Amino acid sequence: MLNFEFLKKEHTVAGPGFNRWLVPPAALAIHLCIGMAYGFSVFWLPLSKAIGITTSVVPPEGMSFFAKVFSTQYDWNISMLGWMYTLFFVFLGSSAAVWGGWLEHAGPRKAGVVSAFCWCGGLVISAIGVYVHQIWMLWIGSGVIGGIGLGLGYISPVSTLIRWFPDRRGMATGMAIMGFGGGAMIGAPLADRLMNFYASETSVGVLETFLTLAVIYFIYMMVGAMAYRIPPPDWKPAGWEPKPDTKKKGMITTKHVHLNNAWRTPQFWLLWAVLCLNVSAGIGVIGMASPLLQEVFAGKLIGVNLSFNDLNVEQKAQIAAIAAGFTGLLSLFNIGGRFVWASFSDYLGRKATFATFFLLGIALYASIPTMGNAGYLALFVAFLCVIVSMYGGGFATIPAYLADMFGTQMVGAIHGRLLSAWATAGVLGPVLVNYIREFQLDRGVPKAQAYDFTMYILASMLVIGFICNLLVRPVHEKHHMSETERQEQSRLLEQKVAAKVAVAQSLGGASVGATSHPIKLILAWLAVGIPLVYGIWNTVNQAVALFK
């Protein structure tokens, strides 16, 4: 009978000499893998030709949606495949909300292992779905099961990092969540090369690529999960003492709020709205970035004064390539914003940082139409890059904001519950943007101006977000856990750890956890740093070459 004792939370408590800087690369190992969800569109075009190989085998007109789902004779259209992307983020938010409380008791290692099995198992199920040509298996495999893996993997390191870095909460969560934004930069070009390698007269290479990625990601995620360590109860960095300053440091509490009470506070729902509105506006821009640039500047991108509709096929291909470089540039700012803004929040304070997001965002969104109509390409691109950096920065800053408000005892579970705002924004932002654009075009508005009203709507959403953030106040003391309740939770873990230490020592073993050799630290950072630098280098080269 298999013994899974090593997955229990008490087996992950760090021993003497453990270096806390080993935890961020463990989190990055998982986030860089699940972040490939952002790059799944690289599979859409090849999968739309899975039967025809070179061209799509189009189903006959009048064929029902249900028949298309179960058909093995006709190729899938991209709109059907796109449901995987929607399912990713719906189930990411919902699974984080449902199982966030479980994670606090089970610990990050067990959550990371379950995440690896779900995400990589979902890829295997999707590969089988490609083999038997059943799209519902891709929806269930990668969309539902993989989406659950996304949720658990995304929140698995949050509370752990916050406890290891009480002095740098924003920076710590920024490092890990940066990986989620960067996963596509590594995974998408890797998947493209794998599909080209596996492609043959009978296969577009997606099936084999899914299986290869599943193996690679499973190894990385399991190593990351095994490397997780949590600090002993009441641990703090040597020589560091908390210095709450509600005016300058964003109302950092020294108390703790239980999950069951946190979601009943007005602060929780105000922060829910803050995240939802920031993400809705940002994801709306990311979702339309490529057509936005092409339709607003059209021929000006290649030096001809023509509208989008007046361009020929070759010219449209040229500006599409430029737009691809622009999209890559935005991904860099999405990643960089997660680390830079979150680290900046350690000094400015979380409330002031989000106020900056909203005030600066309102000005930038409202200025985009003017920049576009005036033909200021450099400013147009720069403004959108800053907007996307604040979108990523919001994701990385919100866990630290929650820790400031509700304490660190159950911040992982509270963060999981709050991510339902992401699931909502994932639907609200793109739907709002797309429908407004279609409404404008149906009314005869030129394509170059069809986004103007959309930008003003998004700016208005940020005004509401700014008001919600302004209303955030410290949590009332009636919601705080009593010192007895907090100590009881810590005491249970201490007892389990003490029992394991006693058993290990009686057998001549070491204490729970592990010491940290400098070589181990270097290897850990190289393992995640090399792929990340590779992804950034590829993206920079693509963006620079296309904007020359």
Low-confidence stretches: 246-250, 503-511
Domain unit count: 2
**Content of β-strand:** under 5%
Secondary structure category = mainly alpha
Features:
548 residues, Growth Hormone, Chain: A, mainly alpha, globular, 0% strand, 2 domains, 21 helices
Question: What would you note in describing this structure?
Answer:
With 548 residues, the protein is an all-alpha fold. It folds into 2 domains: 10-236 and 517-539, MFS general substrate transporter like domains (Growth Hormone, Chain: A), CATH 1.20.1250.20; 259-473, Growth Hormone, Chain: A (Up-down Bundle). It is built from 21 helices and no strands. The protein has helices at residues 23-34, 44-47, 65-70, 78-81, 83-106, 108-132, 135-155, 158-164, 169-198, 206-227, 259-262, 266-287, 289-297, 313-348, 350-374, 377-406, 411-418, 420-442, 452-470, 483-506, 518-546. Helix 5 runs antiparallel to helix 18 and helix 14 runs antiparallel to helix 15. It starts with 22 loop residues before the first helix and ends with a helix.
What's the SSE blueprint?
Elements (H helix, E strand, L loop, with lengths): L22 H12 L9 H4 L17 H6 L7 H4 L1 H24 L1 H25 L2 H21 L2 H7 L4 H30 L7 H22 L31 H4 L3 H22 L1 H9 L15 H36 L1 H25 L2 H30 L4 H8 L1 H23 L9 H19 L12 H24 L11 H29 L2
Helix pairs in contact: 1-9, 1-10, 1-21, 5-7, 5-17, 5-18, 6-7, 6-10, 8-9, 9-10, 9-14, 9-16, 9-21, 12-16, 12-18, 12-19, 13-14, 14-15, 14-16, 14-21, 15-16, 15-19, 16-17
